[in-house]
Amino acid sequence: MTAPSPVLARAEALLLTDRPQEALAELSRLPADEAVEVPATLLRCAALGQLDRWSEVVEAASAGLAAAGPHPDLLWHLGRAEHRLGRPQVAERALLDGLAQAPHDVDLLCTYADVCAANGQVDKAAKLVERAAAVEPEAPIVYATRIQVAYNRGDDRAAERISREFVAAHPENPAAHALLGGTSAARGRLDTAYEGYRQAAASRPTEQAFAESALELRIARHPLMLPIRPVLRFGPLKVWLGVILVVFGLRAAGLPTISAVLGLLWLLLCVYSWIVPPLVRRWLRRNWH
Amino acid sequence: MQDELFSPTIQERPAPGRPPWRPESILYPAVFGGPLAAATLGVLNGRRLGLAGHRLLVVGAAGLVGFGGRLAVSAAVDGNSAVRLAGMVTGALVWLAVLFFQRAPFRVYSYRGGEPASLVGPGFAAGIGFGVLEAVLILVLVR
């Protein structure tokens, strides 16, 4: 094999510094025969993927596969793009074709796990990501997929724990901070969540998803949401049972007036927590764009 | 070697029906309306989430057991506050059963970009309607 062309090396460097648009421009300067080879196609797919141009990823990966024959990395790009486009069965086909050639490929295993998790097969997703974790436990995609699978299973505690491990292993990775933000928010730890999003948005200000999460968190931290914070922090069930116990305990202790006032206040808070959050969300969203 | 994990299992998605409610939100009508309100909303929401029939049956049965418990308390204890407390506690317990079955499917639904439907209207309807129904049944049956 010859040394990689300087064009490819430049395109790769641009990709690594989050400049996919310039990487694409660089790739377009390749001669026609080199442009359809696997290395160039992989870089093009990665750049288009960073730009969320998924249907073009499908085109590029398919062209590369037609030229080079089945290749696990190209099949991974194809499968991931089809998954993002909402065609899970096509995605599954591509990813399984890739896994037939490279059964221990961490990217293929994790993306297939993600497809399964998004289609209600969380148990299979967990097994797939376990297998990826046995191969490369420290890979960012393995952490991210384990967190997503745990969250989709409803296991917030595990999701938060794995997020902490992710941040500890990759403190420079913005996705790690964003995931810690998301899983902390799910457990009502709004300050940790804010810190996570802040770090993620600071290290990658162009990422739409981080900005979106930061907005969700701004909603949760809005002053009008302050009365609902205990419910977010401790979960509704504990707060409810606590209030019920206090209200009926006060009555049993011979303080019916205080008990009635407390019950009424709680009732008002419930109505408040039903009506105000959607309004705050709508209000902040409208003023955000 | 044929690897079981590597065989295709993704099904064609069923045509999107009515969007589900957020299962966590059912706690409110459950506590105010009692176990029957919780179970009814739970079963309806389970159908929207495409849950298997036996899970819906468990939720429905939990609602009936919860209401049975409330009836037993009402028969055993004098005083309205115990009857109300029993309705709140059994309602919350039935909601726990609803949450147990519906939390993960709802997260999968939102992970695919689905938005929850608003529970405000149905929640008030179920909370008030079943709350009154349970009160009438308690009056007729055990008081």
TrEMBL record, chain A:
Respond yes or no to whether keyword Flavoprotein is given for this record: no
The residue ranges crossing the membrane are 231-252, 258-280
**Do you know which SUPFAM superfamilies this protein is assigned to?**
TPR-like (SSF48452)
Which InterPro entries is this protein grouped with? Answer: TPR-like_helical_dom_sf (IPR011990)
Q: Which UniProt keywords apply?
A: Membrane, Transmembrane, Transmembrane helix
A single Pfam family it belongs to is TPR_19
Put simply, this protein is called Tetratricopeptide repeat protein
Which organism is the protein's source? Plantactinospora endophytica
Automatic annotation (TrEMBL), chain B:
| Source taxon at top rank | Bacteria
Q: What is this protein called?
A: DUF4345 domain-containing protein
- Keyword Membrane on this protein? yes
Where is region (Disordered) located?
1-20
Q: Where are the transmembrane segments?
A: 56-77, 83-101, 122-142
Q: Which UniProt keywords apply?
A: Membrane, Transmembrane, Transmembrane helix
